[in-house]
Design goal:
Immunoglobulin-like, elongated, repeat, mainly beta
């Protein structure tokens, strides 16, 4: 009889399913441990973890043991790949059963699961060298490089561009815009072979740009450019020496230099220019505007030989300029200037310009003369420009800048500057004309600037009537001559003879500086001839004149007598520093005493009396008269016949500076005027203008309520001691 002993020992086997999974997929590697034999109790089985994948990096970390539950025949370990974008080889996870307690190892060989990489390789592109010569032996090599898995062959697309033309300027490897990586190879190349030619042309480019395709990504997104440099002949030009003397033995040598291919002879074109004349001022090698390089020669020359003469002339130039042609390009520098310097003896000329006076309205141009000291056989040029002194450019004259050309052997030349008539009676004005930058002459530094005086005054030594548009007339000399104005506002001045002066229409001024003898003059005016004035400015002795009589009167003792051709024709008198006696007429007169202690009498009409400085006696006469105080050096003027309510005391705020009242009649600030009963009360008044009713005196109380008068004083005395009120005053600027 047979009995059987059954084996109840536990054996462990191991398998994986599936055998491989993708790195970025959802399926995992599942390692299944199976036990046979006793399964009643739980059991822990050991194993090792190996492979090219890294535990916890390329997949979720797993332990090195697994536990069977009681009564379970299987247990599993799951490997979950970690997704990334790294292009890398496939990686393995290898589990191998290890010995332990309560089981035997049934599967003794390692069990391998594979994580396959599903990222695409990246393609980059570069070119080396970056440029090659057109006719050289070196090619442009465009290298495509792939990173990551290189196991299989791979075809990559590209586009072709640039200024060079395929199969004309170059050829390439391959017939389509693709390149193929061999299996296991990390690089592939496209070779560009430039096509040699003799055409002079710009450098050209070949541009490859990676394009998208299957099984890769584009790493180099920008175009990659290789350059085919033109190595055909370039020609440049230079001259040495830069200048030679006309009568010397040295010549100008123009050297043409070529770079690039020099194997063959080459003819180059040029143009000929400059101020020198071929076959008159110089000769040259060759008879046409070409020069030929010998075979293998890098230079060729043209020689310019100056022609000697005895003519004094400016330096002259010979300019050669490269022109286009066949078999070369024009390089830089492309032109060369040689100078033939004149070595003949020269004449030293010196220039000067004069000063002139022009009468505005009579002279339409100021004609200045430029004088050549030692005339030159060569043409002279000199620049000129106008500069204002007190004349206004383009109002009183036309501003000009120009160049004056003086012909050979000429002693003088002129510059004409237009004078503009503004029809204004104004003081003399001036501007200058300055010479500069003379050629073939020097400029006299003491006479380089001409001054032009524009005057409104016509001077005459003969009897003269002012032409239209000229305002003023001055008689000169000592002859008995006459002066007549025009319809404008004229200023007429006699000479030291006996003159008849007639202003005609307009507001005319008759000027007499009677500090020296002026003779016996007659003034012819009409009652409709405008508002006219006698002006004695400059006369430092007493003036005695009465505008209301027509008989001869001695105006300045020993120096001047005047006769008016008609009564009531002159309105105004202006005197100077003497103790003057001025008398008006029935017109509205303005009598100005100036300096000195003057006696002014208005007579009939509404007159204005201005005593000026000094202690003056003012008599208005009939009419509504103004007694004007506008001098910075007031005395005490006596007013003999002031009529309140009709006459006015006129104060200039420029003199009476403490006044704040507005311009016009009366005081807009009433407190600025006051009357007091006695002169002793003036200094204690707070008003600025104070009238003493006891004496008729008028005071300027400059400091107001402060003690004393400040810088003020008594400036007028009303001899009739009338009653004054604020409206008897008028304020002016």
């Amino acid at each position: 009889m047979t009995g059987t002993i059954t084996n109840d020992d536990t054996s462990i086997t191991l398998a994986v399913s599936p055998a491989s999974v993708t790195e970025d997929g959802t399926t995992n590697l599942v390692y299944t441990f199976t036990r046979s034999g006793v399964t009643t109790d739980a059991l822990t089985v050991n194993y090792t973890v190996e492979g090219t994948a890294t535990n916890g990096t390329d997949y979720t970390s797993i332990p090195t043991s697994v536990t069977f539950a009681a009564n379970a025949t299987t247990a599993t370990v799951t490997v979950d790949p970690t997704a990334d974008t790294t292009v890398e080889p496939d990686e393995t996870v290898i589990l191998t059963l290890a010995t332990g307690t309560g089981y035997t190892v049934g599967t003794t060989t390692p069990v391998t699961g594979t994580i396959t990489n599903d990222d695409l390789p990246s393609i980059t592109l570069a070119v080396s060298p970056s440029s090659v010569t057109e006719d050289g032996t070196t090619n442009l090599i465009y290298t495509f490089t792939r990173t990551g898995v290189t196991t299989n062959a791979l075809t990559v697309n590209y586009t072709l561009g640039g200024t060079a033309t395929l199969n004309t300027d170059y050829t390439r490897t391959g017939t389509t815009n693709t390149v193929t990586f061999a299996a296991g190879s990390a690089t592939a190349t496209v070779t560009v072979d430039p096509t040699a030619d003799t055409t002079v042309e710009p450098n050209e480019t070949v541009i490859l740009t990676l394009a998208t395709g299957t099984g890769y990504t584009v790493g180099t997104t920008t175009p990659v450019t290789g350059t085919i440099t033109n190595d055909d002949t370039s020609v440049t030009l230079a001259v040495s020496p830069a200048s030679v003397t006309e009568d010397g033995t040295t010549n100008l040598t123009y050297t043409f230099t070529r770079t690039g291919v020099t194997t063959n002879a080459l003819t180059v074109n040029y143009t000929l220019g400059g101020t020198a004349t071929l076959n008159t001022d110089y000769t040259r090698t060759g008879t046409t505007n070409t020069v030929t390089f010998a075979a293998n020669a890098t230079t060729a020359t043209v020689t310019v030989d100056p022609t000697a003469d005895t003519i004094v002339e400016p330096d002259e130039t010979v300019i050669l300029t490269l022109a286009t042609g066949t078999g070369y390009k024009v390089g830089t520098p492309n032109a060369a200037t040689g100078t033939i310097t004149d070595d003949d003896s020269t004449v030293t000329s010196q220039l000067s310009i004069n000063d002139i006076t022009v009468v505005e309205g009579q002279n339409s141009n100021a004609i200045l003369t430029v004088t050549v000291n030692n005339p030159n056989p060569q043409q002279i040029t000199v620049n000129y420009t106008t500069t204002p002194i007190d004349a206004t450019a383009n109002v009183d004259y036309t501003s000009q800048t120009g160049t004056l050309t003086i012909a050979p052997n000429t002693a003088t030349a002129t510059i004409s500057i237009p004078i503009l008539n503004d029809n204004l009676n104004e003081p003399d004005e001036a501007f200058t004309v300055t010479l500069s930058n003379a050629v073939n002459a020097t400029i006299n530094s003491d006479e380089a600037i001409g001054q032009v005086i524009i005057t409104d005054t016509l001077q005459s030594s003969i009897t003269r009537t002012l032409p239209n548009n000229v305002e003023n007339l001055r008689l000169i000399g000592s002859n008995n001559i006459n002066g007549t104005g025009n319809a404008g506002d004229n200023k007429i001045t006699g000479n030291s003879g006996n003159n008849i002066l007639a202003g005609a229409n307009g507001n005319d001024i008759y000027c007499f500086n009677a500090s020296t003898p002026l003779g016996s003059d007659t003034i012819q005016e009409t009652t409709t001839g405008g508002i006219d004035t006698l002006d004695f400015t400059g006369t430092n002795t007493a003036v005695r004149v009465n505008l209301g009589i027509t008989t001869v009167q001695t105006v300045v003792t020993n120096n001047l007598k005047l006769t008016f051709s008609a009564n009531n024709t002159i309105e105004n008198i202006i005197s100077d520093s003497g103790n003057d006696r001025l008398t008006g007429n029935s017109l509205n007169n303005t009598l100005t005493g100036g300096g000195g202690n003057d006696q002014l009498t208005g007579q009939d009409g509404n007159d204005s009396l201005i005593g000026g400085s000094g202690d003056d006696l003012l008599t208005g006469g009939n009419g509504s008269d103004n007694f004007i105080f506008n001098s910075s050096n007031l005395g005490i003027d006596a007013i003999s016949d002031f009529t309140p309510g009709s006459d006015k005391i006129v104060l200039s705020k420029a003199i009476f500076t403490a006044l704040q009242s507005s311009i016009g009649n009366g005081f807009s600030q009433p407190a600025e005027f006051a009357s007091v009963d006695d002169d002793d009360l003036v200094a204690t008044s707070s008003a600025f203008i104070v009238y003493s009713t006891s004496s008729g005196s008028i005071y300027y109380n400059q400091n107001g309520s402060a003690a004393g008068l400040g810088s003020g004083s008594e400036f007028a005395s009303l001899l009739t001691v009338p009653t004054l009120i604020a409206t008897d005053f008028t304020l002016i600027n």
